[in-house]
Amino acid sequence: MPDHRKLGRELELFDTDPLIGAGLPYWLPAGAAIRHSLEEYIRREERRAGYQHVYSPVLGKRELYELSGHWAHYREDMFPPMELGAEEELVLRPSLCPHHAVMFRSRSRSYRELPLRMAELGGMYRSERSGVLGGLTRVRAIQLNDAHIFCTVEQVAEEARGALELIRRAHRALGIGPVRYRLSLAGDGAKYVADPELWRRSAELLEQALDGLGIEYERAKGEAAFYGPKIDVQITDSAGREATLSTVQVDFHQPARFDLHYVGPDGAKHRPVMVHRSIIGSVERAVAQLIEQHGGAFPAWLAPVQLAVLPVSEEQLPAARALLARARELDLRAELADPREGSLGARIREHRLVPYQAVLGAKEAADGAAALRLRDGRRLEPLPVERVLAELGAVVADQRAELWPH
Ligand SMILES: [Zn+2]
């Protein structure tokens, strides 16, 4: 596997600047295009699975994290608070959970609303030391694909199972794999919230979800979140380092800290459970993995440029521009490879990572057709331009892995 940092620079996907700071990459247009497609995919999958999207601020008062337990258990990974006058201290958030817990309790909730699935692709921050930072995998500003499911204890195993199914489907669509499943449990020490009975129950619920899908997993002590055990989906990067991509966690702790409740069928107040889950983890790590796994040859729906239009000579420029405009109208990312930039062969080589190249010679231009070259080397007979665009549009819309249906 290639190193995503090297390839990311070569393909102009992202970069960093010492003046902005280590661990704070910026996304160039090609990288931003991949990220948009990925974020759109996640939001659509979540909507279909009954999640509701929210936005919450990336800052919160120090008291918020004292209440959640992050201040006591996670402070060394957090940025120091910003003082505003004598009264107020604001913290860059180390996770989205506390905001979502507060949003859940913003009004009274009925059992009929459960499971309530609250999702957000939101920023969070980790104060890593500059020596360990690099590329998209060790960063200080993280865009997290996060969600919290507020549900009853009886609903936890089914919700965890649903989350695992979303994760597996996403890995297939993205071409990510192989992955390993890990049940991460508490270790010794003050890092973890103390309550052995709750830890045991939470771990049991996660095991049920894994067993229900017949997923093999290993157990790892000392890898849990401070508030509860979790299922981690592990990947390996080009340097052979293992990292967590996706995760499903069961949490009895934060609902108690935030005094969350819902009104049950009996009219009494009950405590919900929080299931934290992430399908692709951080957008940064997910894109790093995609770069390495595909070596820059992304599935068509993720590719920064999906269609390169190559007129053989300047005479075909008007036809090429018309095709380009039509492709963009249909929301395809298309680019013109101008004949003044080099020979046809040179332009074909330059666009070798682009999934589709539409070559327009004199005959194609006159017929309203295009001869398609696929990235895998296939060359198709000239087809009407509208037919070409319809096929490409369908491949991209369905997030298909194959380049051509036949
Ligand atoms: Zn969370």
TrEMBL record:
E.C. numbers: 6.1.1.3
Entry annotated with the keyword Metal-binding: yes
Signal sequence region? none
- Care to name a GO molecular-function term for this sequence? ATP binding
Q: Which PROSITE patterns match?
A: AA_TRNA_LIGASE_II (PS50862)
**Superkingdom, natural source:** Bacteria
Span of domain Aminoacyl-transfer RNA synthetases class-II family profile: 29-299
Q: Which family does it belong to?
A: Belongs to the class-II aminoacyl-tRNA synthetase family.
For the protein in the UniProt heading, the enzyme class is ligase
- Offer a single GO CC term for the protein: cytoplasm
Q: Which reaction does it catalyse?
A: tRNA(Thr) + L-threonine + ATP = L-threonyl-tRNA(Thr) + AMP + diphosphate + H(+)
Q: What is the protein's given name?
A: Threonine--tRNA ligase
The alphabetized UniProt keywords are: Aminoacyl-tRNA synthetase, ATP-binding, Cytoplasm, Ligase, Metal-binding, Nucleotide-binding, Protein biosynthesis, Zinc
* Species of provenance: Streptomyces tateyamensis
One GO-annotated biological process of the protein: threonyl-tRNA aminoacylation
Q: Which PANTHER family match?
A: THREONINE--TRNA LIGASE 1 (PTHR11451:SF56), THREONINE-TRNA LIGASE (PTHR11451)
